[in-house]
Amino acid sequence: MSSYQAPLQDMQFLLQQVFDADSVWQAIPALAETIESDTAAAILAEAAKFNEEVVAPLNRAGDEQGVSFDNGQVTTPAGYAAAYQQYMEGGWIGLCGEPEFGGMGMPKMLGVLVDELGYSASNAFNLYASLTAGAALCIHAHGDEALKQRFLPKLYSGEWAGAMDMTEPQAGSDLRHILTKATPQADGSYRINGSKIFITGGDHDLTENIIHLVLAKIDGSDGISLFAVPKLAVDEAGNSGESNGVTAGAIEHKMGLKASATCVMHYDNAQGYLVGRANRGLVCMFTMMNYERLSIGIQGLGSAQAAYSLAAEYAKERKQGSAPGASAEIAPIIVHGDVRRMLLNIRCLTEAGRAMAVMTGLQLDLAKFAEDPHQKAYATKLAALLTPVTKAFLTDRGLDCTIDAQQVFGGHGYIRETGIEQWVRDTRIAQIYEGTNGIQAIDFLGRKLVADRAETLNQLLAEMTDALTSFSRVPAAYVEHQLAQQRQFSDAIAAIAEQKSTAPDLINAVAVDALNAFGYMLCGYYWLTMSERAQACQAKLPVTLVRSKQKLCDYYFTRLVGRFDMHLAAVTCGADSTMQLEAELF
Amino acid sequence: MSSYQAPLQDMQFLLQQVFDADSVWQAIPALAETIESDTAAAILAEAAKFNEEVVAPLNRAGDEQGVSFDNGQVTTPAGYAAAYQQYMEGGWIGLCGEPEFGGMGMPKMLGVLVDELGYSASNAFNLYASLTAGAALCIHAHGDEALKQRFLPKLYSGEWAGAMDMTEPQAGSDLRHILTKATPQADGSYRINGSKIFITGGDHDLTENIIHLVLAKIDGSDGISLFAVPKLAVDEAGNSGESNGVTAGAIEHKMGLKASATCVMHYDNAQGYLVGRANRGLVCMFTMMNYERLSIGIQGLGSAQAAYSLAAEYAKERKQGSAPGASAEIAPIIVHGDVRRMLLNIRCLTEAGRAMAVMTGLQLDLAKFAEDPHQKAYATKLAALLTPVTKAFLTDRGLDCTIDAQQVFGGHGYIRETGIEQWVRDTRIAQIYEGTNGIQAIDFLGRKLVADRAETLNQLLAEMTDALTSFSRVPAAYVEHQLAQQRQFSDAIAAIAEQKSTAPDLINAVAVDALNAFGYMLCGYYWLTMSERAQACQAKLPVTLVRSKQKLCDYYFTRLVGRFDMHLAAVTCGADSTMQLEAELF
C-alpha cells in the first residue's frame, strides 16, 4: 500500500477558481501583503510534502503501539516526538496565528486545507497541533495582554501545547454540573482543584509544557469561568518552571485514535489564570470550541480523502472478476459499477465537503479582517451557521466514506495490516467529540436558523440563487433542481419556526435531518459551482480536472441528489412520532 | 453495564401472531409432531438463558484477549472451550439438523431466532457453531451416504466443528482462479494440496476435530470441486485419528471479531472426500454459503439488538441536560428527541429485520418440507430471492444500528470498557464476508429478479398486496403509501430487465440501491403487518407490546419511509453517470 498523496490540484482549483482567493486576499489590507496564490501554492506543497513524508509513515505504527502511561507519564508512539519537533520547526502551528506574537497571519481559507493535509496523514498526530492552535486562538481572543505575552509566543512556536479541559464524569454535553473549583488568590491568580475526563492531549511528551484551558467554578459562584492552567508553572517572563499540580491520572483505551492521549486530568491546587471575565467561561471556551469544531469537521474530511486514495489505488490494481458484457478476462475491480459507486460517492462528498470547509474558512477570514461592518457582521453570523454543519456533516460523511473505502478492499479491508480499517476507527470519534453531531444539529437548527429568524440563512440562499442563475455551462435541469431544493429548505425552516412555541420538542427531534438536508443542499450547490468554474476556466486547467468535475457533477445530480429529499421529508414530519412512545417502552 | 437481555416477547409475537407458526407447523407432517408453540417458547427461553448467562459474559473479555497462535496451535480466549462444551451438550448445533443423524429436526423459522440470540450474546462465539451447522447442511445435501454416516453425527453433536475453505489470495469474490489441487487416489478419496486464506474457525481448540469443506481443482480439470477434508484423519467408523496434513499457518489480526480465529490454512497431501459431483463444487458449496449468508444477516440483526439493549438502558439512566420546554431539572437523555430518533431507528430496523429473517426461515422450511410441489418450488425460489437481501440489508442496517447505539453513549461510546464500540467492530465484517454486500446485491437484482423475469418477485408482491388490502387496523394512508412503493419497485425492475441487453453495466451499477429499496419496502410491509396483527390479537398480548408496535409503525411511516424513495431514485437513474469517468481519473 503506497502512502498518502495530497490532492493539491483539487485544493488549488478550489482556492483559485472556485473561491477566487487572490481577489479576496487583495481586497483585505491585512492579507494583501501576506498572501497571494503563489505563496499559497508553496505553503500547500510544503505542507503536503511534510505530511506525506514525515507524518503519514507514523500513522499505522502509532495505532499499533498506541500511547502508554507509566508512573504518571504519558509517552507517545515511537517517532512522534521527533516528527512533532520538525512540525514545530516548520512553523505550522502558528500558520494562522497573530503576527505580533509570532504567528504567520495566514488566512483560515488556506489553514483549513493545511489542516486537511495533516488529518489525512494522521488523525492522531494532527490533533495535538490543532488543540494548540485552538488554545492560542482563545487566549488571543479573551486573555489580557499579560496572558497573551506570557503564553502565545510559545504556543504559536509549538514549544508548548494546548488542551481543552471541559468534561467531567457527570458533566459532558451538559456542562452546568461541573465540580472543578477555582479559589481566588491575593496575586490575582486562582488555585484550581478538581478532575476532568476525556482530555485530548491532556498529557504527552511532545512539548516542554502544556497550557490547559480549564472550565471551573469560582468559589461561591455557580457560574462557569475559564482558566489557563499550565502543566509546569510559568514565570512572568514566560519560562516554564516546576510542576504546577496538573497531572494525568490515567489514559483511556479507545476504539481508535490510539496514538492520541485521552487523559483523566487532576488539578491539585494548580495555579491558573482567568481568561476573559469571571462567570463567562463558556462564551470564552466557545471561541476555542468553534475552532476545534471546524478542525474536527476537517478530521472527517481528511480521513475520507486518505481512505479514498487507498481505495482508488486498490481498485485499479486488484484484479477479480470480469467487466459485465466484456470478455471473461480478469479485470481490475474498478470495472465494476458497484465499486465505482462507492468510490464516486466518496469523491463527490469529499470534494464538496472540502468546498464547505473552505467556505467556512473564508467567512472566518472575513469576520476577522473585513473592514465593512456589514460584511464583517454577516460573515461572523455565517461562520457561526456553517461551523456546526462543517463539524457534523463532514464527520458523518467522513465515517460513511471510510466505510465505503474499507468495503472496496473486501476481506482485506478488515485486516489491520491493510491499514484502511484504522481510518474507520480513528474517524468515528469525530462524530462524538467537540459536541456530538446531535448537539451540532440542535445548535444549527435552533440557534443558527430559528433563533436568527433565518436571516443569515436566507441571505446565503439568496446569494446562492444569484450565483446559480448566472451559470451557463452546467445542465439547466440540475440548476432548477438545486433551486427547488433551496426553496424547499427555506420553506421547511420557516414552518419549523412557526411551530416552535407550540412544539418544544420539534427542534431536537428533527435537527439532525435538517442539518443533513442543508449539507446535501450545499453539496449540490458546490458541485454545480465546481463544474461551472472548471469549464469557465478550462484554458488554465488540466483537461482531466475539468472532465472530472463535470462527470462528478453528473454523478451527484443523478445518484446522490435524492438524499436531500429523504432528509427534508423527515424534517417536515413533526415531532409526534418521535416523542410519543413512553420512555419505559424503550 | 448490565448484560444482554433477550427480546423473547417480540420473538414470540413474530412467531405466533405475525407468522402464525402453529398453523404452519401443523400443516407440515414432518413438523407437526416435532414442534408447537409451547415447545418453541421453551426452546427460545432456554437458548436465551444460555446465551445471557454463559456466552454474553465472555464477549468483551474475548475481544480484549483475542485468539492466539503459537507453534501452529490456535487457542481461543479463556472460557470459550468450557462454554462451547456446554453449548454442545445443550444440543444447539443440531437444532435444525436431520434426526436420522442425530439432529433435532426443528424448523428454520425457529432456528433463525436461536441464531439471533447467539449472535446478540457474542458474534465471535456463535460463528463457530454457525459454520458447523452449515457444513453439516452441505454434507447432508450433497454427500454420499458413507460421508453422511461418517461426519454428520459428530457435527450435529458439536464434537466436531466445520469450516468453509474457499478464498485464496488471488481468488476472493472470483473463485475461478483458485490453485488448490485435488489428486485422485485409488481408494476413491483425494489428496489435497494448497493454501487458503480468511478461513473463519479454520483451527481452534474447541472441538476434537474440524471438518473443512475445501474448494479445489481435480488434477487436469479447470472445474472446481468440493471436498470434505478433516483436520484429523477419520476412520470408516467415524473416529478421529492422527493429523491429516491440515494446518493453520497464521491467524489474521483484524478490526474486530478478535475471538474468532481467521486462519491461513495449508493442506499438505491431506486426505479429502469429494462432496457432490466432480466439477460441481461451487453449486454444492452454495448450499453452505446460502446457509451462512442467512446466518451472517442474523449476525447483523443480533448485533443491532444487543447494541439497542445497551443504548436504551444507558439513555434511560444517563442524566444530562433538561427536556425542551420543561423545567431546568436534569433529566435522563431519553427525553431528547435526537436520542429517541437514534433508538427508534434501531428498533424499527431491527424488528422489521427480524421479521425478514423469520420469513426467510419459513421459506426454507417450506422448501424442505412442503408436500405441494408448487408451494415447494415457490418457497425454494423465494428463499433464494430473500437470502441475499437478508444477508446484505440486515448487515448494512446492523452496522448503522450499532453506530447509532454507540452515538447514544457520547464520549463513553468510544471507550473500550463501555463495550458498545466492540459491536461496531465485530459486526463490520458481516458486510464483507460470505460474499460482500455488493455481490449479494448483484445476485439479487441480476439472478433473483431479472433472470427470473421477476416472476417470484411479482408473486411475492401480489401476496403482500392481498394481505395489505385486508388490513383494517392500520392507517389507510400508510397502506396506500406501501402499495404505491410496491408498484414503483415492480415497475423499476421491469424497466431494468428491458434495458439489460443494451446496458451490460446497469445491474452492477444499481444493484445495491435496488436491494436497499426492496429491503425498506419489506420493512414497511412488516411494520404494517406487525401493527395490524398486534391490534387484532390484543386480547392475548401485553398492552405495552400492542402500543409499541402501533407507535413504531407510526415512526416508520413518518420518518423512515422516505429511504425507499431515495434508493429507488438511484435505481432508475441508469448506469451512465457511474460508468463514464475513465478509470485513470479515479
TrEMBL record, chains A, B:
- Entry's transmembrane regions: none
Which family does the similarity line name?
A: Belongs to the acyl-CoA dehydrogenase family.
PANTHER family in the cross-refs? ACYL-COA DEHYDROGENASE (PTHR42803), BROAD-SPECIFICITY LINEAR ACYL-COA DEHYDROGENASE FADE5 (PTHR42803:SF1)
Keyword set includes Cell inner membrane: no
Cofactor(s) required, per the database record: FAD
Give start and end of each Acetyl-CoA dehydrogenase-like C-terminal domain. 475-581
- Organism the protein comes from: Shewanella avicenniae
Q: List, for all copies, the residue spans of the domain called Acyl-CoA dehydrogenase/oxidase N-terminal.
A: 38-159
Acyl-CoA oxidase/dehydrogenase middle domain location is 163-269
Q: What domain of life is recorded for the organism?
A: Bacteria
The record, for InterPro entries, names: Acyl-CoA_dh-like_C_dom, Acyl-CoA_Oxase/DH_mid-dom, Acyl-CoA_Oxase/DH_mid-dom_sf, AcylCo_DH-like_C, AcylCo_DH/oxidase_C, AcylCoA_DH/ox_N, AcylCoA_DH/ox_N_sf, AcylCoA_DH/oxidase_NM_dom_sf
Keyword list (alphabetical) reads:
FAD, Flavoprotein, Oxidoreductase
Specify the Acyl-CoA dehydrogenase/oxidase C-terminal domain's residue ranges. 279-441
**Protein name in the entry:** Acyl-CoA dehydrogenase
